Amino acid sequence: MLIDLHKATLLVIDVQDKLVPAMADPQGILARIRWLLQVATELGLPTVISEQYPKGLGATATALTDAAPQAIVVEKLQFSCVAAECLPESLLAHEQVVVCGMETHVCVLQTVLELLALGKEVFVVEDAVASRTPASREAGLRRMRDAGAQVVNREMVVFECLRGASHPRFRHISKTFLVGEQP
């Protein structure tokens, strides 16, 4: 199955001010998720950003909300966005959910497992998820893959949404985001 721009939503999980510094490669993960958000904005991919207990963990990193001003931001106390019942109907109406964020083995994992249980096609962006340790990240990715989630990278997301060079945004996106060094 391919990601279909007209059937998908991007879900960014808990990339918050007080949580980011605890991640392995904090600046790298911020840069990669920002890049993904910028491309999603260019493509018009609907985007939802979750925040786990923002009173304690702070708001979403400003670099991300600046990159996706159209995104819907939702708060939660449960680890899973599904269990928290914070996801807007507009996200749940889509067949496909592209997921990135942190922590891979906790909030991302629980959300992905519950989205799969709802019958969603779930794509976890491997180079845009993080945990405090590489071993926890890998364990989370392995479990999600074993449960039926598709593990992809950022370029897979972009090229599957574009489907071909005939897409009206292909030239701009390839020049702006795909040429040269990526984060």
Description:
Residues 9-155 form the Isochorismatase-like domain. The protein has a single domain (8-178), classed as Isochorismatase-like (Rossmann fold). The chain has 183 residues and is α/β, with parallel strands linked by helices. The two termini are 27 Å apart. The protein is built from 8 helices and 6 strands, in the order βαβααβαβαβαβαα. It has a 6-stranded parallel beta sheet with strand order 3-2-1-4-5-6, with helices on both faces. The longest helix has 18 residues, at 26-43.
Present the secondary structure layout.
Blueprint: E1 8-13, H1 26-43, E2 47-52, H2 54-57, H3 62-67, E3 72-76, H4 89-92, E4 96-102, H5 104-117, E5 121-130, H6 134-147, E6 150-152, H7 154-162, H8 170-178
Helix pairs in contact: 1-7, 5-6
Domain Isochorismatase-like: 9-155
Pfam family, one: Isochorismatase
Protein name: Isochorismatase
Largest sheet data: 6 strands, parallel
Secondary-structure element string: EHEHHEHEHEHEHH
Structural class, judged by helices and strands? Answer: alpha/beta
Task: Please report which band the strand proportion falls in: under 5%, 5-15%, 15-25%, 25-35%, 35-45% or over 45%.
Answer: 15-25%
What's the average pLDDT? Answer: 94
- What is CATH's topology name? Rossmann fold
Spans of at least 5 consecutive residues with low confidence = none
Domain unit count: 1
**Broad CATH class:** Alpha Beta
Q: What is the count of helical runs?
A: 8
Biggest sheet, spatial arrangement of strands: 3-2-1-4-5-6
User: What share of residues is helical?
Assistant: 40-55%
* Terminal Cα span: 27 Å
CATH superfamily: Isochorismatase-like
What would you say the CATH architecture is? 3-Layer(aba) Sandwich
Q: Over all CA atoms, what is the radius of gyration?
A: 15 Å
Q: What general form does the structure show?
A: globular
